[in-house]
UniProtKB/TrEMBL annotation:
It comes from the Bacteria. Signal peptide: none annotated. This is Histidine phosphatase family protein. InterPro entries: His_Pase_superF_clade-1 (IPR013078), His_PPase_superfam (IPR029033).
Amino acid sequence: MHNPDKVLYGRLPGFQLSGLGQQMAKAAATALAERDITYLVSSPLERAQLTAQPFAEQLGLPVHLDPNLIESGNYFEGMRVTAGDNALRDPRHWWVLRNPLKPSWGEPYRLIAARMILALHAAREHARGHEAVAVSHQLPIWTLRCALEGRRLWHDPRRRQCGLASLTSFVFEGDQLAQITYSEPAAHLGPGTGLGA
């Protein structure tokens, strides 16, 4: 992700993929080249649509948009939250950190899970009998996976298994979820493993 100011970009417009991000998106698309994919859908954010572009070119499919796939809302959007001079150290912001189980600083986990489940089933319906690719963002993808695996939704962000340009696959047999698999086809490209956007 091209983010020279190192801010939490969240739902802010104008954030595009870096050169490395473009390579990683192509690697993910290449990993699915032989799959029976008939439907491609993306979060409406620009960076997600750019990630979907290599899939569209390779598969000859249009990119549909689903607002349910969007990044989670976050109070700290546009602020620095990494080590050093970050918003988390400023006492003016501490009130939003009062409940990490919800979380109080952003969109509640249960709402993220609910909208992502809707997006998953919509994509599955559009591709019924085939496969779909949905491009979303790290927190919504991880929250969906936790919800479907019956795990608690609040978690340590450093422990998410959801790297940049990774593939979390939800495999159905009929209408029943049979398996969830995970792979990182772009991991060989270097930095970003485990730090999904």
